[in-house]
Amino acid sequence: MRVLVIEDDKKIASFVVKGFKQAGFAVDHASDGDDGIHLALHESYDAAVIDIMLPKLDGLSLIEELRRNKINTPVIILSAKRSVDDRIKGLQTGSDDYLTKPFSFSELLARVQALIRRASGAAETTLLTFGNLSMDILKREVTRADKRINLQPREFALLEYLMRNAGRMVSKTIIMEHVYDYNFDPQTNVVDVLVCRLRDKVDRDFEKKMIHTIRGVGYVLKES
Amino acid sequence: MFLKNPRLLLKSSSFRLITWYTLLFILCSLVINVYAYTIISSFIYEQSRKEIEEDIDDLAEIYQKDGLEALREDVYEEEDEPFLIRLIGNQGNTLISKIPNDWSGFNIEQLEKSGYLKNKEWKYLKGGDDENEFEITSLSLSNGSTLQLGQNIVEREDLLRRIRKIYMIAIIPIILFAYLGGIFVADRALNPIRQLINTLKSIVSSGKINVRVPVYQTDKLHDELISLFNTMLEKIEALVSGMRNVLDNVAHDLRTPITRLRGTAEVALQSEQDPDILREALSDCIEESERILIMLNTLMDVSEAETGAMKLDPEEMNVAPLIEDIVGLYGYVAEEKGVSVYTGFPEELYLRADRNWIRQVLANLLDNAIKYTPSGGRIDIEAYRRDGEVTITVKDTGVGIPPEELEKIWDRLYRGDKSRSQRGLGLGLSLVKAIVRAHRGYVEVSSNPGAGSVFTVYLPV
User: Fold this and answer.
1) Domain final residue pick, A120, A155, A180
2) Chain B residue closest to A217 (CA)?
3) Which of A122, B68, B76, B319 is deepest in the core (most CB within 10 A)?
4) pTM, full prediction
5) Domains in chain B: how many in total?
6) A131 and A91 co-located in one domain
């Protein structure tokens, strides 16, 4: 997997590049719009992370230029603004996702991975397994070590999302978006409570815990 | 751009005003003068011709009734008659011709040369010595002959010439008056604008936005302009001071969590190299920074809503499913806490509002209610539409609010929970109030300490 990062802030660029390398990506970095468009037009990438405020050529114009050249690499826009207008504007130019600063790298990684998966068009399987945990999405059945677990719809949706992203960090914001289909801040521990309940049903009777909390960042489904 | 050179602008506009006023004044005076002269001169003409016109009729009657001899007799009978009298036969031959003695410079040939005169037309003749002027009228008679009468008009023409001269001389003071009047009018008209410019200049140069332009009540238009300017200044002042307050508050509110963040990091740096402690400290830092971010965003939302800068995207929407949604969202939270939530509202509650912000209002109210209601309590959410308003009430059986704190709960960073054992920033209700206000609605709270509180939101349809 190869990712292009176009970001002029050196610190942000360095932690993003480092993070992608650690996650096993090949990374190219450009620190202004001109270099960025040059790389994007002449090399092939699986995804691009583009800052909106760039010297020489701004992020949105850069994406427009890419789309005009029929390059459909999925793009994540980074911006310090958080107003809805920019979001819409960003999505209209053909980029695929949007992240506001400050952001956590794990969230950026999760979103990039999701974009690449979506772009590769892999068929969504209806039978998910992870360790001794398995889920039949059509029958809406979950079992662990052949023991049936009864889940309510939201718990089911959360577990499905965690299983599809097994081993990867999932942030609270992403859970709000995917499980509740909201992108607003409920100001409370709605997600914590949901994860707590799910953990109670999935992990309580087992020695090996699967749902782990990474404090301040989010949750991950992994075998400890 | 205009403020750069107001003096020049004023000069040119006052110059334009003066010029226009002067020209219009002169034009009006001229029209009046010409009209007056026309009336006077036509009156004088009428007066001086009246006698001759009567005479010519009399003579014509005599001639037609009694013949040429009777006319001749009548004409020569009176020696010192001031009129020229001529009778011309139908072959153009002169039958009678009497010229008064004092008509020096009159040349009869001049009249003959001018040929046939139209009936009742006045013919002007100038005497050969430039001393006298004459006018002659004629009357065609039924037998083809023509009767002509003339008079010396030098006195009349002198009078008219004198009147014309007076009018010509009068133009000089008129122009002077016009110009002075123009200056006066321009000064009166531009004075309020000049004052406005001076006030604005002092505001621009000093940065003091509490200065107002005085209203003089001299002119409706000017007063309106000035009061509009004052309203604008008031709005700017409110905005600026609002922004200043927000900035102060944000700076103050952020200092505490940033201090905590820094403290945590410092302690971790000083500690032994125990990875577990470091990991814990780092997690604390991330959580704290997350809290700062949420706080910053919420503070921005509150102040944007309060200052009217909030981006609202109103649409016709049904609030009923939104309430159900939010109750569903908090379902597990309420269940975990052992609080039951009951709802009562019609299926359709339409109003025009921004869906996302109304959802935030409902979420914050329910969140608040769950937070302050102990296990075993209940929350009732009711909504109805009445008198062009949608009313939403959230009633809890929580700890309640003491009366002296009832007004403070809407303040930024107020927290009823003094021990701060509950999660929260103390911004939820401020945001509720600000959003509802931005929708031109209002909020109310009533409480019975120890028994519970009722929060009511009124939103215009």
Assistant:
1) A120
2) B286
3) B319
4) 0.60
5) 3
6) no
